[in-house]
Amino acid sequence: MTKVISNNTTKLGEIDVLLLQTWVKEAGEFALKQHHSLITDIKDDHSPVTNVDIRIASMLVKHISQSYPNHQILSEEGSRQNNNGDILWTIDPIDGTRVYISGLPAWGISAGVFKHGKSHAGCFYMPAIGEMYWGVGDTGYFNGQPISPSKNTDPQDPLAFIAVPSNTHLKFEISFHRLRALGSTAAHLAYVARGVAMAALTRPLYIWDVAAILPLLRAAEVSLVYLTGKPFDPQELLDGSCSKEPLLAAPYEIIEFVRKMINPK
């Protein structure tokens, strides 16, 4: 079981990240227990949603509203609270709903925090495998261990791979020999931050897909850019809109090398 840690970096400004870890752990354990009683529906964008997604979104919104009543909240499952505060929470109750429904492990509970429009803190918990990721500012942690700049920058490394969406073969030609689709955008990005994945290609995404991992990417000195090479600016998506193109994450020194290997069909 993942241990929620506490130290003097868990608080920054108005956010208690230890409390956030407690909330996402609670949500993750709830999702594990409720897997036997799933009710699945299909949203307008043809992606699945379950009764557990909706319940977790409600749980997290309630926790945030009670603890931080002046904060704004934006959730994937349609909940938005607009207050006058300068802090915005983004929630993805289950990132990787398809793999969660299928009983596979690469899914998690994701929450990110923005202050004055800039990434401030985040937490991503994968309960099926006990992995806790969290960060504040430019620091990041994986199961209590600090994340440092990635050393997985050698494309010739026999373990190097690019994490990709499952439909990548329909949309892109990628001249790299190992691609893996695990089913969760946040997990893919977290593995780049850890140095497990060399890079990650996303589909066009929403802010809640990436918000929790942004502090970890900064800690790992991982660049996040659009496929055109334009740097990612999270403020462009804080209104709940979808990005107009996919994103690519990789360590600074190889981001251009990887980007040139990916070509739309």
Description:
The chain is an alpha+beta fold and 265 residues long. The chain has helices at residues 17-33, 51-67, 97-102, 168-171, 185-194, 207-210, 214-219, 255-259; strands at 11-12, 15-16, 40-42, 48-50, 72-75, 80-81, 87-95, 108-115, 118-126, 131-136, 139-142, 145-146, 162-163, 172-174, 179-180, 199-201, 222-226, 247-251, 262-264. The strands form five sheets. It has an eight-stranded mixed β-sheet, with helices on both faces. α1 runs antiparallel to α2. The radius of gyration is 17 Å and the shape is globular. The protein starts with 10 loop residues before the first strand and ends with a strand.
List keywords for this structure.
265 residues; eight-stranded mixed sheet; five-stranded mixed sheet; 8 helices
Dominant shape: globular
Alpha-beta content class: alpha+beta
* Low-confidence region ranges: 1-13
C-alpha termini separation:
43 Å
Quaternary structure of the protein = single chain
The share of residues in helices is 25-40%
Number of helical regions:
8
Number of strands: 19
